[in-house]
Amino acid sequence: MLQSIKNIQLFDGAMGTMLTEHRETQGILIEDLNVLFPDIIQNIHKSYVAARANYITTNTFGANRIKLKDSQFTLKKVLDAAIENARQVTKNTSVKVILDIGPSGKLMEPIGELTFDEAYNNIKEVVTYTKDQVDGYLLETYSDLLEIKAAILAIKENCDLPVFATMTFDDNGRTLTGSTPEIVALTLTSLQVDVLGVNCSTGPDHMVEIVQKMRNFTHLPILVQPNKGLPEIKNGQVSYSLSDDDFDFWMGKIVDAGATIIGGCCGTTPQTIQTIAHYKQHKISELSPIKGTYICSSTRLLKLKKGILCGERLNPTGKKQLQKALLENDFDFLQQEALKQEAAKADFLDLNTGIPNCNESALIVEAVKKIQEVCDLPLQLDSAKPEAIEAAIRIYNGVPMINSVNGDEKSMNALLPIIAKYGAVSVALTLDKNGIPETADERCKIAQRIIDEAKKYGINQNHLVFDALVMTISSNQQHGKTTLETLSKLKQLNVLTIVGLSNISFGLPQRPYLNRTFLIMALQAGLDIAIMNPNDTDSVLMLKAFKALAGFDDNCAAYIAEANTNTTSIPQQSQSEQTLYQSIIQGLKGNVEILTEKELETRTPEAIIDTILIPALNEVGKKFETKTLFLPQLINSAEAAKGTFSILAKHFTLSNTTKGKIILATVQGDIHDIGKNIVKIVLESHGFHVIDLGKNVAIEKVVEAYHIHTPDAIGLSALMTTTVESMAKTIIELRKIENVCPIFVGGAVVTEQIAKEIGADIYGADALSSVNQLESWIK
Amino acid sequence: MLRQDISLINKTLQYLGCSLQHTNESLQTAAKEALDTINLKANFKYRCCKFTDVPIVPAFVETDSYAPIRNYLPTSTFFAGTLGLDIDKLIKSTAKTDLSQAVILNAAANVTLEEFVNQFITSYQSNGSLFCPGYAGTDIMDNEQILNCLNAKKLIGVYTTESGIMIPEKSMCGIILTNYKFSCIGCFILQKCKYRKQGTTCYNQ
C-alpha cells in the first residue's frame, strides 16, 4: 500500500518539545501524561492534524516494559490511553494513528547485556496489546541494527500492520553502533518493512547525504524526521538552532534526495509541520529496485561480483581442531580463525557448525554471536538443517548469505520461505532429490526450476547464487569439465555463481596445484565467488592476478596491494641464532614451534620443561618483579611458553603436563575481561589447564562449572567496586559446596583486605603473583 | 585527532607499569604505534551542560557523599565523553589474536581518552577538574543520572549496564568543578585504599 503512494506524505513533529510549554507536566514520566493529562496530549495531536499531517504518532516512545518500569500505571493502561488520545482527534478524518516505539535504552549483546529474545519480547508485548487499535507502528531513533531487527520481527510476526522503521545517525553518517546508511537501508529492505528512514540525529542538513545513500539501497518509501537543528540547553530550557524556514529549505533538499514521507523530530512544532506541508504537492518519482546483489554485516557491505573470496576455514568438515573446538564450545578458536581469514582478506566467511551429537541450532547461534563480536566480515550461514539456518539468520546482524537451497521440492519448501522472510541471499545447489546430475544441461535445468519456484515467494533471482558443484577428478576425470561447462551455462541465465574449489583434488597428491589451476579455469568459465582457504596466499594472489588480467581490477589496484603484501619480508631473528630459552624470555612466539621440535630431537619433554621452560619462566618472573620486563613482554613470554607446552603435550598425556585444572571467570555484571585473559595466558604458560567461563558469568554458571570440571582452583575477576559485591555472592555460593577448591580473586579494585573480607583464599595482585601462590596451594 | 607527543607515549608506558628508565625502544615504538592506531579509530564525542542549565537537578547531589563538593556545584558542569564503540571492538578483536598488543592498545586508549577530556576541560574552564562518581566515597551508579541529564545515550551513545559500567568502555563521565582540590577525606575505601598504601591517590593515577 505504502509503496504505491504518489505524493509526498506528512508525519507529525515532536511531542516532548510541545510538552515543555506545559509546566504542570514537568517531572512526570512523559508516557504517564497520556493517563494524567489526556487533554494536553489530545490538543498536541489536534494541532498536528491541523498542520495537515497524514500520520500522527502516539505518545508512547518509551512505553515498553523495559523503559516503563518507573510508571505509576500498567503498560496496557498507558498504551490504551495513548491510543485513545490519538483516536479522539483523528476520528472522521483520513489521518492514520501510528504507535510510536523507541529503543529499549539498553545495548544489545555482545556489546551490552540485552539479549535478542528480550528485545523481541519487549516489543511483542506492546504489539499484542495494541494491534487491533492502531494503523501501524513507527520504530524510531534506533541506533543498533540488531535491536531494530528484533523489533521488526516482533511486529511482523504478531500482526499484519505496516512497519515504519527509522534509525538515527551521528555526524559521521553512521549509527552509534557503526552501521552506514547503505547497510541500514539494505537490511531494513531485506526485512521487508513498509517504510524505512532516518530520524532525530543532528539536523536536516546532515540528512541529505544519508537519504541519497539510502535511496541507492532500497525501493521502499523513505521517511525522514530530522531535529530542528542542534539542541542547546540554556537555563533549563532546550532550544534548537534552525528556524522553520531553514528547516523547510533543508527538507526541500531531502525530498530531492529521495525522501517520500517527511516530518519532524526534536524541536519541531505544528508550525514547523505546517511550513513543510506544501511538499505534499510533490509527485514521487518511481522507486527502482536495488541493482546488484549485496550482503552485509552491521558494519561491512559487500557487493557480490566476480573474484569474491569466501573463507572456508569455519567449516568443520575434515578439520579436527575445529570439530574439537565446537564440541567443547571453545569459541575463542572460532573467533581466532575468523580474524585470521579477515586478515588474509577474505570478503566473507562460511560458517558451519554441523558436528555429530550436538544441538546445531544452538551452536550456530552462539557461533554467529561470538564471531560478530570481533569480526566485521559478513557471514555465510551454512547448514543442512533449515531450523539451524533460521535460528542463525534471526540473530544475525545484517543481511547474510545462506548455504543452501537445492532443487529438491522439500528443500525449496523449507528454505525459500526463510530466504523470503529475512531477505537473505542464498546459495542454490544445482542438484535435487535424484542427486547431482551428470551433465551441465541438467544442472542448469535445476537452476531454472529454483529460479521459477523462488519467484513464487517473491524472491528475485539476484538473491540466488548458483553452485555449479565440484566433485573430485580422482573418481571421474570428467567431473572438472562438467563443472566448468555448468559455470559457463549458468552465466547465460544471468546469475551469480559460486563453487567450493578444493573438492576437485580430493584423494590426489599435491592438491594445491590442482586447486589453483582449477580456480583459474573456473574463473575463466564463469565463476564469480570462490569458497576457498584465504590463508593460501598463492591462490589468493592468483585470484587477484586473474581479475587484473581479465579487466576486473581498475588500475590493477587489488593485484598490486596483494602482491606487495605477499612479497613484503618480515625481518625475523634467525632461528639458528636463538635458543628456545632465549625465545621464551624475549617472547618470540613465532620461533618456539621449530625450536621446541628441534629440542625434542635430543631431549625428552620432561627434560625440556625442567631445564628450559621452567628456568626461562623463572627468569621472566624475576625480571617482571624487578621491573626490568613489563606486562606486554610478560604476555609475549607467556604465549611463547604456552606454545611450547602445547607442542610438548602432543608427546605425552595431559595429566603429565598439567599442574592443575583452573576455572576462571569475570563475575556477573562485569564485562571487563582483559585482566582475566592475562591471568589465563600466564597460568597456561606455567602448565595449568584453564577453563575460561568468560565475562559477566552468572553465579549459578560458576557453581555448575565447578560440578562439571571439579577444578583445583577457581579464579574470579572484577574491575569495578560495584561488581565486587557479585564476586562476594559467587564465593558465598561456592562455599556451600563441601570441600570446595581454593578460590582466588583479583582485579583493579580488589585488595588483599577485600579478598579476605569476601572469603577468598588467595589474593592475586597481578597475574604472576596469582600463579606463584597457586603453585604452592595446589602442590 | 590528537597531536602525538612524547608525553603520551610515556603515559601509555606508565599505564603498562613500565618504569621509563627500563623501557626499551621496541616498547616505546609499540606504544607510539598503538597511540597512532587509537587516534585513527577514535571518534571522540562529548556532551556537557552547566549545572544551572540542567532541567531537573539529579537527586544524588543532595546525598551526604557529595557534601564535600556541594559548594562547587553551582558553577560546575556535567560532562560525558567517549572514544566510541570502534575502540572497544578493536581491543576485543586484537585480544583474540595478540593479547600483548591488546594490552598496549588498551593503555593507549585510556591515555587518548584522558588527553581528549583534559584538552576539552582546559579549553572549557580554566582551573577545571573532572570529579567522577566513584571518587571520594560517591557512588559510581550516579553516572547514569549524569548521562541522563546530558541525554548522552541518544546523542553520544554512552550507555550504562546494571552494574554502572559505561559502554563504550573508553568513556568518562563526571562533574567539572572549578578550583576544586581533590582529597581522600570521606572516601569509603580510605582504610583499604591500595593507592594510598603506595603513597598516591586514585585521582592522580
Count up the helices of chain B.
7
Q: How large is the share of residues in beta strands of chain A?
A: 5-15%
Tally of structural domains of chain A: 4
CATH topology category name of the largest domain in chain A: TIM Barrel
Structure, briefly:
The complex is a heterodimer of chains A (779) and B (205). Chain A is α/β, with parallel strands linked by helices and 779 residues long.
For the structure shown, list the relevant keywords.
heterodimer; A: 779 residues; alpha/beta; TIM Barrel; 4 domains; eight-stranded parallel sheet; eight-stranded parallel β-barrel; 30 helices; 25 strands; 14% strand; B: 205 residues; alpha+beta; NADH Oxidase; two-stranded antiparallel sheet; 7 helices; 7 strands; 16% strand; globular
Give a structural overview.
- The complex is a heterodimer of chains A (779) and B (205).
- Chain A has 779 residues and is an alpha/beta fold.
- Chain A has four domains: 2-281, Homocysteine-binding-like domain (TIM Barrel, Alpha-Beta Barrel), CATH 3.20.20; 294-533, TIM Barrel (Alpha-Beta Barrel), CATH 3.20.20.20; 536-568, no CATH class; 577-778, Cobalamin-binding domain (Rossmann fold, 3-Layer(aba) Sandwich), CATH 3.40.50.280.
- Chain A contains 30 helices and 25 strands.
- In chain A, the strands form five sheets. Chain A has an eight-stranded parallel sheet with strand order 1-10-7-6-5-4-3-2. In chain A, strands 13-14-15-16-17-18-19-20 form an eight-stranded parallel β-barrel, surrounded by six helices. A five-stranded parallel sheet of chain A has the order 22-21-23-24-25, with helices on both faces.
- The longest helix of chain A is centred in the C-terminal third of the chain and has 21 residues, at 605-625.
- The N and C termini of chain A lie far apart (74 Å).
- Chain B is an alpha+beta fold and 205 residues long.
- Chain B has helices at residues 6-15, 25-41, 85-97, 99-124, 143-149, 152-156, 194-197; strands at residues 45-50, 77-82, 128-131, 133-136, 159-160, 166-167, 171-178.
- A four-stranded antiparallel sheet of chain B has the order 1-2-7-3. A two-stranded antiparallel sheet of chain B has the order 5-6.
- In chain B, helix 1 packs across helix 2 (25-41), helix 1 (6-15) packs across helix 4 and helix 2 (25-41) crosses helix 4 (99-124).
- The longest helix of chain B is centred in the middle third of the chain and has 26 residues, at 99-124.
- The two termini of chain B are 23 Å apart.
- The mean pLDDT of chain B is 87.
- The chains are: A alpha/beta (779), B alpha+beta (205).
- At the A-B interface, strand 8, helix 12, helix 24, helix 26 and helix 28 of A face strand 1, helix 3, helix 4 and helix 6 of B.
